[in-house]
Specification:
Layout lengths: L10 H10 L10 H14 L2 E2 L1 H4 L8 H10 L6 H15 L2 E9 L12 E8 L2 E5 L11 E2 L8 E3 L2 E8 L2 E7 L2 E3 L5 E4 L11 E7 L10 H9 L10 E6 L2 E6 L2 E8 L3 E8 L2 H13 L30
Parallel strand pairs: 9-15
Antiparallel strand pairs: 1-12, 2-3, 2-11, 3-4, 4-5, 6-7, 7-8, 8-11, 9-10, 12-13, 13-14, 14-15
Bound molecules: coenzyme A (COA).
């Protein structure tokens, strides 16, 4: 197998990638370009675990990722999305490294193993953190420094990276959830930053460099182990200019970010697999024939080429 470090996009592949994420800007390795690439990516490519759910073997080679993300219009989890994005940054000439982050569990607040892959980018001797493979990471990259004046306020909330000993902690300001009638349901999170109860820690990391191959064992864990949050049910989430859409199991959550640090959540329970697949197509752009389905699924083994897509343009 070709060593992954030696893989590079061709100019045609880059054009296809940029068209896919609707990026039309410059190709200079500046912070403005990085921010716009990250924004376009998070708005276009969902964070999703459908391969885990459908027992599809995940491969981190360039060709497999191009086929899955660009040709099949799928998303993926951190290994796939940040690996693809790193290849794009290479092409633009950004100096970057991969690092391992420990994600705080979304229900308990306990830090997991250092299994999440993130990127740091050195631009004119300043280090920026970028992550298109987390779920609700921010639109802008975050600059690392040792003080708290690096809080970033943007349309979808406030984010910061806090130095803690020899580690960094990525935190988000907690939002108040309101229902569709404007009634407050309470804070979005149960656990908070030890530094300030208005913030929630998402993950912690250090700047030890890693290669994508260092994550093979953790990627297997997240595909197969019952302790991983990704082996239980379908999760697919996509950033929108106004908020976020999340499919979790058979629940569709529409989060609309409001003023005063509030988020309006509306939840819809979908009835059956056909409706889930229809929402994935319509809301997330994931075509049903682009997925594998587990044994027992009504779609398992369907040959889409001979089915309703035969005479269409899909
Ligand atoms: C997935 C995510 C975007 C959902 O945020 P959201 O759109 O605001 O939606 P909510 O927080 O209301 O969650 C909606 C549902 O998604 C599910 N969910 C949330 N986070 C999840 C996670 N990390 N794994 C699995 N399911 C998750 C929950 O079941 C929740 O339903 P509940 O209200 O019954 O608990 C956000 O939780 C996230 O980014 N989590 C981090 C993902 C992660 O661990 N990334 C590392 C990648 S390797």
């Amino acid at each position: 197998m070709e060593p992954r470090a030696s893989e590079h996009f061709t100019p045609d592949e880059v054009q296809e990638y940029l068209a896919h994420i609707h990026y039309t800007g410059s190709v200079e390795p500046t912070i403005e370009v990085l921010a716009e690439l990250q924004r376009c990516h998070t708005l276009s490519v969902p964070f999703e675990n459908l391969s885990v759910f459908g027992r599809e073997k995940i491969v981190l080679s360039k060709d497999w990722l191009i086929d899955k993300i660009l040709r099949r219009h799928r998303g993926g989890f951190c290994y796939e999305l940040n690996r693809m994005f790193a290849l794009l940054l290479d092409y633009f000439g950004f100096k970057h490294e991969l690092h391992a982050a420990s994600v705080f569990h979304y229900k308990t607040g306990s830090p997991g193993p250092p299994s999440h892959v993130i990127l740091s980018i050195n631009i004119e001797n300043e280090i920026w953190v970028s992550d298109v493979g987390f779920g609700f990471y921010t639109f802008p990259p975050l600059r690392l420094n040792d003080s708290l004046d690096n809080q970033v306020f943007h349309g979808n909330g406030s984010d910061r990276i806090r130095k803690h000993g020899n580690q960094y902690i990525f935190e988000q300001r907690i939002k108040t959830v309101v229902d569709e009638f404007g009634h407050e349901e309470g804070p979005e999170e149960q656990f908070t930053s030890e530094d300030d109860p208005q913030w929630v820690p998402r993950y912690k990391f250090n700047l030890n460099p890693k290669t994508i191959d260092d994550f093979q064992d953790m990627m297997l864990f997240h595909q197969t182990d019952a302790r991983s949050p990704f082996t239980h049910d379908r999760l697919c989430t996509l950033a929108k200019p106004w908020g976020r859409l999340t499919l979790s199991g058979s629940k569709l959550v529409t989060s609309t970010y409001l003023a005063d640090n509030k988020v309006r959540k509306t939840r819809k329970i979908l009835c059956g697999e056909e409706e889930v697949v229809k929402e994935l197509e319509e809301k997330f752009g994931i075509r049903r024939e682009a997925c594998l389905y587990p044994d027992g699924s009504m779609f398992c083994g369907v040959d889409w080429s001979k089915d309703r897509f035969k005479d269409s343009n899909c």
